[in-house]
Amino acid sequence: MAVAVGNSRRRWYSCGPTVYDHAHLGHACSYVRFDIIRRILTRFFETEVIMVMGITDIDDKIIRRANENLKVGHLLCEESAPFPLWFFEEAINWMPIWIGKIQDIPRLPMNISPVALARIYEEDFKQDMASLKVLPPTVYMRVTENIPQIISFIKTIIANGQAYATSQGNVYFDVNSWGERYGVLTAVSPDTQGEAVDTDKRHGRDFALWKAAKPQELSWSSPWGKGRPGWHIECSTISSAVFGKQLDIHTGGIDLAFPHHENEIAQCEVYHQCEQWGNYFLHSGHLHVKGSQEKMSKSLKNYITIKDFLKKFSSDQFRMFCLRSRYSSAVEFSDETMNDAKNVLQAISSFIRDANAYIKGQLVCDPVREDVLWERLASTKVNVKAAFADDFDTSRAVAAIMDLIHHGNRQLKAVTKDAVSPRSSVVYGSITSYIESFFNALGMSLEERQVAVGGGNTALLSNVMDELVSFRTKVRNYALVLPEATEAVQMEEGAVGAKGPKQEQKEKRRQLMQERKPLLEACDSLRGDLAAFGIHIKDRSTASTWEMAEGGRAEQQAEEKS
Fold it and tell me: Do residues 302 and 296 lie in contact, with contact meaning Cβ atoms separated by under 8 Å?
């Protein structure tokens, strides 16, 4: 997608979750990537985004999950004692479900309805997105709150000749009637779908718009009998209800391109009688577990929940992980790739802290080539904008930022002598301000200290550390600065039989050094102790600075438990 400059508003529909369980890291990767794109549009291209997210709150998986809880409840409430043989047979079959769900938060009641179950996991999803700093859409829209609109949408498609109802109460989209216009997104030929033919379909490639109700299943009245919507019609109806016959951006995982988005296009173009309904379809690449070509998914049981992930890593670390690849590419998840993202964040934070130390006069350097840094900053801004305009190439934009940091670091070389040349505070202030605003715009705080304090009191921790390091610096300088020794004394240190006041001054210095040695050892000990918590003190001549490593104490605790 090439980003057009000067268009002030975009209509965006996002396929939301089917809320029957906790969201996992594969979901997180998709939603974080699209959140980054949304932020790029609003912050770097000054585009207003109106985003609608559909929540699928009625679905086969939701009904199945509610029935699983109900079945377990019936087993546990059996009054006969001792339990009959069939109970133990069923218990063996259902044990994986009990074990897999025992840690679920919130706990689900045994007789929960599909709608109530969906509400619980919808709220759970929203909390996960907030933890990942994903901006909420302009509005969430649930399927169950748009049933009349869906029925009306289906009736129009039937009236236009592209759908048919069956005697069993199902309604299907007639793919044959749409001809060559079907498959415009993915170039998939309907003849090669290989779909199993249901008894009441005209053709195997036809897909359901309305599903007849099964016994004791949640349903709604319709002209075709009791039933519920098919999956594809939900998003078509909701997006059309808000945006009409023209949509700018539609997003979802790559696995939604076919058949979901392909079917959405067919439905909407029939309903609106238009040539092109959606302008841009953006699909995020799969998240693969290391060593596997399969995507992370619940059905494959190879997933990590967002909650479990955030016990070990921070949202900023995951966002950097996402930034380092194109949104449309598959990406491999492992401890190694996450550590790579952590190291990048650490390099950025280290540069910002060193630059701030230089600005404050705590880091003494040789004269800085300001003209070179100003030129690098200007070219970085141009390169970042160009990368974002090229289908939101975040990896190239981050590389441009890291190149700027590299050139900034090259001139931040500490010297042991006091410098008399003026500091170039403005250029380094401009560089750090741009870098911080860049990452803030993309949803990152660069405040890795949050991990060590559980996400709160960050400013308090920073102030306490500043005072602690300042006190340690005073102690260290006191221990290092001894009474002045004349050059004559230094020259005679190796002379044999040196006597008199000079020898006494030499002995006095040695005595003071011995007396103050415990102070230096205490300073070194404090530095070592703080390093264990991820806080690193850097001693620079007569000044010291500090920084916190990505992960901090939380990372150490995770290592201790493993």
Answer: yes
Burial of 527-538, coded b for 16+ CB within 10 Å and e otherwise, reads: beebeeebbbbb
Q: Which strand (E) or helix (H) includes residue 386?
A: helix 370-389
**What does the pLDDT read at residue 2?**
52
Closest CA to 56 of 219, 220, 217, 229: 229
* Cα 537 from chain centroid (whole Å): 30
Q: Which of 15, 101, 95, 103 is nearest to 59 (CA)?
A: 15
Indicate the pLDDT class of residue 561, thresholds 50, 70 and 90: very low
Whether 449 has a pLDDT exceeding 50, the answer reads: no
What digits encode the pLDDT tens for the residues 73-87?
Answer: 444 454 444 445 444
Residue 259 preceded by cis peptide, ω within 30: yes
| 113: Cβ contacts below 8 Å, ≥ 6 apart | 66, 218
Is 256:283 a contact under the CB 8 Å cutoff?
yes
**Amino acid 447: pLDDT:** 60
Nearest to 210 by CA among 236, 188, 192, 186: 236
Residue with tokens 């004269």: 367
In sequence order, what E strands does 116-215 have? 139-142, 163-165, 171-173, 207-212
Q: Which has the higher per-residue pLDDT, 4 or 101?
A: 4
Is residue 530 within 8 Å of residue 472, measured between CB atoms?
Answer: no
| 366 Cβ neighbours under 8 A, 6+ residues apart | 411, 413, 415, 419, 421
Tokens of 250: 């539609």
327 vs 280: CA distance, rounded Å: 14
Residue with tokens 């990537």: 33
